Amino acid sequence: PCIVSLGWGDEITWVQTYEEGLYQAKKSNKPLMVIHHLEDCQYCQALKKAFAENEEIQEMAQNNFVMLNLMHETTDKNLSPDGQYVPRIMFVDPSLTVRADITGRYSNRLYTYEPQDIPYLIENMKKALRLIQTEL
């Protein structure tokens, strides 16, 4: 299958659609990580570079998550609880609940990350994994 990493990580298996992501998350009991981004957004490009170069993130993304990157909005309003800005990264657990409790560092854009926030994103990925073990 033609898997489009768009520079976020060529070793990662990316699902093509949000619906497929939900299906895979439920089936595999892994959290779904949704990255909203745009091609001509310099903040997205900077985050993408940091994301792709971080071995710990790439390894977790390959092994522990269902991964989706989107350059368009989905119809699921739960994925834009505080607006349709990019980049934003959200987690959906295998019970198909969008985790509004896994947020980044900025109160005005709860789900955005900057390149220097990579350690924070790693913590949030681990948090998403822990939530599954404790809740389900």
Please provide a written account of the structure.
The protein is an alpha+beta fold and 136 residues long. It has a single domain (18-129), classed as Glutaredoxin. Helix content is 37%, strand content 11%. The protein has 4 helices and 3 strands, in the order αβααββα. It has a 3-stranded mixed β-sheet with strand order 2-1-3, covered by helices on one side. The longest helix has 18 residues, at 118-135. The radius of gyration is 13 Å and the shape is globular. The N and C termini lie far apart (31 Å). The mean pLDDT is 94. This is AGR3 protein. InterPro entries: AGR/TXD, Thioredoxin-like_sf. Belongs to the AGR family. Keywords: Signal.
Write the layout of secondary structure elements.
Elements: H1 18-28, E1 32-36, H2 42-53, H3 55-63, E2 66-70, E3 88-92, H4 118-135
Parallel strand pairs: 1-2
Antiparallel strand pairs: 1-3
InterPro entries: AGR/TXD, Thioredoxin-like_sf
Pfam families: Thioredoxin_7
GO molecular function: dystroglycan binding
